[in-house]
Amino acid sequence: MDLGIKGRRALVCASSKGLGRGCAAALAAEGVHVTMTARGAEALAQAAAELRKAYPDVEIIEVAGDITTPEGRAAALAACPEPDILINNAGGPPPGDFRNWTRDDWIKALNANMLTPIELIKATVDKMIERKFGRIVNITSAAVKAPIDVLGLSNGARSGLTGFVAGLSRKTVRHNVTINALLPGPFDTDRLRGVAAGQAKASGKPAEQILEARKNENPAGRFGTPDEFGAACAFLCSVHAGYITGQNLLLDGGAFPGTM
């Protein structure tokens, strides 16, 4: 299927590895010019070089910096001032017990996983409306739908973003600008392994044992891959997805047990 976005420009946050990189690669494969951001300059440079080699006909720009800071956002928007596609993504806050979290911990989580996406939407959505095309995808978490107790910081911040988008997305769709969220369940990423390491420390069990148990508990019997996550993201960014907005799409291998 031709997704109809060849030649468009995308800003993909936190895209040096994991799900963000999967999205950047899927968009580049469709002929989209991609600006990639990440805090780690070395990993970002390597990821950008790999995409340039794989997709020589598209422009790949890399911007090292922290997208959760005003300076990081300014640098990213200077490199890609009028994206047609915005993929909001930032590393999730650490797991733990809410009794141990300070106000500063909460502010940091809200800044990274709620306020930063809102700032980037604010900076780009009006130009999308003027051009009569825009696709915004927020990478949140399956915890938005089924909260995970040790990820309370993430549960709260990402649910706040979801509530904000629920209203805005109904206003922009008339102009062919959609805003949706992808809710990843267990994917084979550094984030998943980091959470398992924390659980291992608390329980005394080996991290690999925890990962294997979680894999076997999933109806799919495996973890998801960044490539299949990227494919779902690319479709939401396509010309065929203009009637989908304000939605929160689970990609979890069937882990959520509900009907809706």
TrEMBL record:
Q: Which domain of life is it from?
A: Bacteria
Q: Name one GO molecular function term.
A: 3-oxoacyl-[acyl-carrier-protein] reductase (NADPH) activity
Could you say which EC number(s) this protein's record lists?
Answer: 1.1.1.100
Q: Does the keyword Cell membrane apply?
A: no
Give the first-level EC class, as a single word: oxidoreductase
Question: Which keywords does UniProt give here?
Answer: Oxidoreductase
UniProt keyword Transmembrane helix present: no
In terms of CDD domains, this protein maps to: BKR_like_SDR_like (cd05344)
Q: Name one Pfam family in it.
A: adh_short_C2
Q: Which family does it belong to?
A: Belongs to the short-chain dehydrogenases/reductases (SDR) family.
**Protein name stated in the entry:** 3-oxoacyl-acyl carrier protein reductase
Question: Per the UniProt entry, what species is this protein from, by scientific name?
Answer: Rhodopseudomonas palustris (strain ATCC BAA-98 / CGA009)
